[in-house]
Amino acid sequence: MVYSTSEVMNMHSKAHVNLSIEELVDTALLRGEGELASNQALVVKTGARTGRSPKDRFIVRDETTENQVDWNVINQAISPEKFDALWKKAHQYLETKDSHFVSNLRVGADENLGIPVTVITELAWHNLFAHVLFIRPEKEEKQLQSAPWTILSTPGLKTSPAEDGVNSDAAVILNFSKRRILICGTYYAGEMKKAMFSVLNFILPTHDILPMHCAANIGKDGNTALFFGLSGTGKTTLSADPDRFLIGDDEHGWGEEGVFNFEGGCYAKCIDLSQEREPLIWNAIRYGSVIENVVLDPKTKEPDYFDASLTQNSRAAYPREYIPQRVEENRGIQPNAVLFLTCDLYGVLPPIAKLTPEQAAYYFLSGYTALVGSTEVGQGSGIKPTFSTCFGAPFFPRPPQVYADLLMRRLQNYDTDVYLVNTGWTGGAHGEGGQRFSIPTTRAIVSAIVSGQLKHAEYEILPGFNVAIPKEVSGVDSALLNPIKNWKDSRAHDANTRTLIQKFIDNFNRFNVSDEICNAGPVLIG
Fold it and tell me: Are residues 172 and 216 in the same domain?
């Protein structure tokens, strides 16, 4: 038996529907789900799973998805029958609880493409998280044209691989035909956010919209900039710019009408957070925010953002309204600059390079960076290089070429400049004498990009990678711009360069794209 959203909302007399932030915080505290920090944010712990569980994520394989999804180890298939049985089990589990929580929200700040979503959670703080991260409809908001979705989150219900057809005691399952998301066995709230991101990444390409794992902001002159990158590379930090206005920090769509945010809140990494370096984020963590897996001083309740004993992936969720300098409309015009944020562990990529459209497609498909912190279960605490297609491989159900083609069309239609920005190491590899670029240095580079200073700068070509690097950037030591000049051991530099280039080549062999894009990548020399 499969229940409708209205049936789920009415199946229990103690369902709490559309509670306010204050009510959800109070309820979470009364139920012992968390505690208040000294800054009045709600502090919670997510147990053993302090990040996403990619091996436990599935997509229902049916007539809707059979020929549309890029089935692989990331996009794992599950049958409709297994989904229906587990969906029913989750409802029966909720019936045993004294209460559950329901919020009617939306994703997508586009009046034509926004999706209504009903979020049903076992925990009050999970509903608060969704309330903060998704868009909260205005009382008189016009009826959205898109069909509604339902998220059902029951972290206390452990799944059985033998019975439920999953891989462990947790599962995240997307059903595109029935517009349902089921999350069982995990307390990590980010699964809700990323599941809806995956939904939009599947739906929007059919509307000629490029869904993007990126941040976006707007300058005082109205120019829009996009910041692509995996967690830990600087999307949230660099987009929260005191001199610009934030659209969003993580998920956006880019179409003929411009850029629009998918969300109504931000989800920032907290590890090593400081008031001096990230004042906007620091000040946004207050009452109504949720901070996950952050250690508190037992006496003062002060958050210790430098304590990684629970996880490197400590997080803060807060409403966009907590950022004073934000774009009220939650959208922007066609971008004049796109930044691919990469964290190079080998120390051989420049802090900035201007890319041709073909190079942009190459580096977009490659998605080279480093895994900084354990954003996924099983990653461990170390830092290691990775290639994540479209700078967000776990969230893109369709074949990569679909998204690359959309990117190329946008770049060609609007003459948008694309830059590769290395927020990683220089002068040596990570752990081998290299130094990470400072946030002030990267901010100066970003400022030069978004202001248009580098549009007509003088460039030189970096051998091997064949990208154009500027000879001067205002506020940046020119010696930092060419990585070759920062290494004391030129032979070690050349060896690391060959290693990274070979990794690019090996990774790109799996893509079936035009010769122009293939030839735009780095090449081995010498």
Answer: no
124-160, pLDDT tens digit by residue? Answer: 999 999 999 999 987 555 566 678 999 999 999 999 9
Task: Render the burial of 498-523: b for 16+ CB within 10 Å, e for the rest.
Answer: bebbebbeebbeebebeeebbebbbe
Annotated active-site residue in 50, 231, 389, 423? 231
Q: Domain check: are 182 and 217 in the same one?
A: no
Same domain, residue pair 370 and 502:
yes
Q: Single out the residue in 155, 187, 219 at which a domain terminates.
A: 187
Which of 56, 249, 250, 344 is labelled catalytic? 250
Query: Is the Cβ–Cβ distance between 118 and 217 less than 8 Å?
Result: no
CA distances from 37 to 43, 189, 291 (A): 6, 19, 9
Exactly one of 126, 213, 252, 398 is catalytic; which is it? Answer: 213
- Residue 494 burial (CB count, 10 A): 17
As for how many domains the chain has, the answer is 2
Dump pLDDT digits (tens) for 279-320.
999 999 999 999 999 999 999 999 999 999 999 999 999 999
Q: Looking at the domain assignment, is residue 433 inside a domain?
A: yes
Decide if 194 is catalytic: yes
Among 106, 235, 320, 410, the active-site one is 235
Q: Do residues 109 and 136 lie in contact, with contact meaning Cβ atoms separated by under 8 Å?
A: no
Residue 71 shares a structural domain with residue 104: yes
Same domain, 257 and 126: no
Residues 442 and 485 in one domain: yes
Is 139 among the residues known to form the active site? no
Determine the Cα–Cα distance for residues 130 and 126; give it in Å rounded to an integer: 6
pLDDT tens per residue, range 167-194? 999 999 999 999 999 999 999 999 999 9
Residues in the chain: 526
User: Is 199 part of a structural domain of the chain?
Assistant: no
How far is it, in rounded angstroms, from Cα 270 to Cα 232? Answer: 10
Residue 235 appears among annotated catalytic residues: yes
Which is the catalytic residue, given 5, 150, 236, 366? 236
Residue spans of beta strands (DSSP E) within 50-207:
57-60, 76-78, 100-107, 115-121, 149-154, 171-175, 180-184
**Statement to judge: residues 167 and 221 lie in one domain:** no
In DSSP terms, 105 is beta-bridged to 117
Do 175 and 226 share a domain, yes or no? no
Domain range enclosing 420: 210-264+327-518
Active site residue 274: no
